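Work Package 3 (structural annotation) set out to generate three-dimensional models for the target panel prioritized at the project kickoff. During this period the team completed the workflow that converts sequence records into discrete structure tokens, so that structures can be stored uniformly alongside our sequence database. As a representative example, we reproduce one entry of 172 residues exactly as it appears in the project archive.
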Amino acid sequence: MCDIRYFKSAYHCYDVAVNLMNLYQNDEMYLNDVAYNLQQCIEKTLKAFLECKGVTVPQTHSIRKLIAMSGNHGSVVVITDWIEKNQYEIETWEADTKYNFDMCLEAERVSTGLQEVRKFLDMNHMSHVRNPELTDERKARLRKHLPENLVVRDEFEWNCYYNIFRKRLENE
């Protein structure tokens, strides 16, 4: 079974990006940090879904490579059109925003990234609001796939476990 903390870590990066954007006052360092955290959110989400498929994920920040691996290994992650189209740019946000002090991102571009990563998380039901597909009946069936002593703390965790086991539940 995969570690739910990977999903939480990815979501945390999104939360950090949102909070930094709220502090932004025409300071490009904030924009760079927002972009970095958005890249990390996407990277960690892709890695979390791969880990849950039993794939040993290499140490990489390459969004392109992780998207390709997701497709090749049957990951259930939903890749949005925006991420698909902008994967190279998103990938550069990892190192360039940290080490290239001449990098200057456009506020509009980063703001769009924030909105699009939210859509990515929503499409993958990484939310604190219960996935509407996760009915009480499905939740009971899902519980049978989890260790007896596992305490699922909140709707975010239920959503993640449902993502992990959705295909199996559909085939029952």
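The chain has seven helices and no strands.
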